[in-house]
Amino acid sequence: EDQVTQSPEALRLQEGESSSLNCSYTVSGLRGLFWYRQDPGKGPEFLFTLYSAGEEKEKERLKATLTKKESFLHITAPKPEDSATYLCAVQARGSQGNLIFGKGTKLSVKP
Amino acid sequence: NAGVTQTPKFQVLKTGQSMTLQCAQDMNHNSMYWYRQDPGMGLRLIYYSASEGTTDKGEVPNGYNVSRLNKREFSLRLESAAPSQTSVYFCASSEGTRAGTPLHFGNGTRLTVT
Question: Tell me: the pLDDT tens digits for A5-50?
């Protein structure tokens, strides 16, 4: 069964304190791994797509990496505005574009 | 350019009532999706439409029906609402089903069934 597990469930950081979020996946043929950001009361906002092990993508203070079994979202010197829930999702073989989501990591960055 | 627009934003129903959630996208996307999001459960796929004229069941289709009205619009209908359908419903669209194509989401409809 295709599955996505994110850890930790919640993470509290001080402003400037770098850390990483983990996404472990089990999928029958990975067609893509996605990271989204979700603010309270809003829909998920697309951040990155990763396709193959070793690939990295960066956007401002965020960097996503991919191995054969997991992905990491590294947050460097976070600011309070980075506070959100970060969702990981996979697209599996046979998918008609639909994604399988993890439960998310709620990130809080305190000034 | 509004992206994906969902109406209504909030709705309260009584058990047994019916309603239709509306979704429209202005990005000329081919594929559209309905997800529900519950605390501790993550986003789960209800139905999707890979292209205009087609619809298919997702992970949790029971109690729902959908209509792909045209390329822009994809509606979700609850024929007889149940408390278990209390959730936040998200509509999403994508250019197509090619590998790695991201979904773009609306801001959701918050539904409470009493």
Answer: 999 999 999 999 999 999 999 998 899 999 999 999 999 999 999 9
Task: Check A98 against B108: CB less than 8 A apart.
Answer: no
Contacts of B107 in chain A (CB under 8 A): 41-43
Name the residue with tokens 């980075």.
A82
The 3-class SS string of B84-95 reads HHCEEEEEEEEC
Residue with tokens 């992905």: A71
Contact state of B33 with A98 under an 8 Å Cβ cutoff: yes
Predicted confidence (pLDDT) per residue in B38-73, tens digit: 998 889 999 999 999 999 999 999 999 999 999 999
> Which of B35, B97, B105 shows the shortest C-beta gap to A96?
B97
Q: Do B50 and A96 touch (CB under 8 A)?
A: yes
Tell me if B105 sits within 8 A of A39, measured CB to CB: no
B66: exposed, middle or buried (Cβ count in 10 Å: 0-12, 13-18, 19+): buried
Contacts of B4 in chain A (CB under 8 A): 43
Interface A-B: count of C-beta contacts within 8 A = 69
E strands, B1-114, in order: 4-7, 10-13, 19-25, 31-38, 42-49, 56-57, 64-68, 74-78, 87-94, 104-105, 109-113
Whole-angstrom distance, CA of residue B81 vs CA of residue B95: 32
